[in-house]
Amino acid sequence: MTEDPPGPTPLDTRLLLEAASTVASDLSLDRVLSNIVGIAGRLLGARYAALGVLNPGSGPRLRTFVHHGVSDDVVATIGELPTGHGLLGLIIDRPAPLRLHDIAAHPASYGFPPHHPPMRSFLGVPIRVRGRVFGNLYLTEKDGSADFTEEDVEVAVALASSAGVAIENAELYEESEHRQRWLAASAEITAGLVGSRDPRSSLEMIAERARATASADFAWIVAGAGPEDLEVHAVSGFAPAMAEVVRAAALSGTLTQRVVRTGRAAVSAHLAGDVRAQLPAVEGWPEIGATVVVPLSTAAGGCGALALAWAADRGVDVDRIDTSLPAGFAEQAALALEVGRGRDDRERVALLEDRDRIARDLHDLVIQRLFAVGLGLQGAARAVVDAEVAARIERAVDDLDATIRDVRRTIFDLASDGEAPDLQSEVEQIVGRAGTTLKLRPTLVLDGPVRSAVPAEVAPDLLAVLAEALSNASRHADATAVEVRLVVDGASVRLEVADDGTGLPVDRHESGLGYMRDRAHRHDGTLTVGSGLGGRGTGLVWTVPLLAGGGGPGP
């Protein structure tokens, strides 16, 4: 008659209950696994116990290795922890329980590294939940130099199942927390972008917030009119020297250009060694390792990409990164940018409508009344006998004419969209600077839609001719008065520069005049030279047509 094997001792029961409660007591994976490994060693009488969590990516086979029974000093002396080769790799490849009398006798067992404690008996079981293998539980050196039993295998399998539940719960919790961080970042960036007025600061805000949320080391954003016109518009996490290198990097053929062209996220396990990167290295700066690039665009338009990267020495496995989270964040950020641009467009339309209304009122009311007053004064002047009074009335009419020209110019300015270079301001600046060399301020008269009607290709030549003419007046004219008049009508733009100086020298060189004449001929225009103010000095008239063939719009 045989006796039934003894049941678990009170210590065994307590440890089993402790193992079960450990799974539900903490969501910190490291603490849970450490507790399970310690309990497994004590429960099964193993001097050493360890647990390895598999790495689903392309890096080392084990991403976590928790051990019990080996002191920290011995671990430091041994060196690197196992990564899943040899006998440990055998259980990874064949996830089934394995009992050995002597580790060293197995063909898959590699030699122990120096200073490794001696180990003979061995038990390894897979950590499996719902058909998925998360890792393996290892136990060595059974008490009393005995071998592990079948009962030990059953207990180890139960503990491994608890460890599997703990790992799965921790991963689900980590994933939930990660997703929650990206959702919070999306909400925060949306609120920030809708209120932002500066496109560059908006992109920098996106890059910085994405980098912080992903716990990445670096982030940058590229944008442009199309895949062939990309530039780096924002960087985050780079030192100033590296930031300048990244901003100036050529983007043709890079991973970011590929993402912009395809509209799909892309990853690189080691960007510093990726031929698609084309980011020059800066001496002393850490290499860029794992990198994720996601599109930063919406169906409404926009063309760009957001890149997140980690330093190579951090060992981040790109296969474990869920690209859908930064991709969703980038899509939300791009949508917020579109909303902000739409708001700016609506405000701009409202502003232009107000300016148009003001311009109509000036034209239909103010100018008409000024015309009426001027006509009335001219009629009154013909009936006045006193010559002095008649002269004063004529001067008043001239002042009204000048006021009407100023009002008309204001109307043209109101009609301008403000996007083109401000030609009027540049003319005023050149005339103002000339005043310092001439020792007098030239008189400036502007007539017509200077800001809006002068073609962009004509404006640089006009400014260059003006600067040359004022320079000549300063060097040669010895003038006491200089007048600049810029007239823009429906047919031409005409620049007149006149002074009351000594006039052109008889042996004058044609270099300066030839320079101005060439700039007129470039636009089918002319340059004429004659007398200046009061029949004295020099007067230049530079004229360019605004009709088809002369640089302006056609009929």
TrEMBL record:
Any GO MF annotation of the entry: kinase activity
Keywords carried by this UniProt record: Kinase, Transferase, Two-component regulatory system
Origin: domain of life: Bacteria
Domain Histidine kinase/HSP90-like ATPase: 457-548
InterPro entries: GAF, GAF-like_dom_sf, HATPase_C_sf, HATPase_dom, Sensor_HK_TwoCompSys, Sig_transdc_His_kin_sub3_dim/P
Domain GAF residue range list: 28-177
Protein name, per record: Two-component system sensor histidine kinase
UniProt organism field: Nocardioides lentus
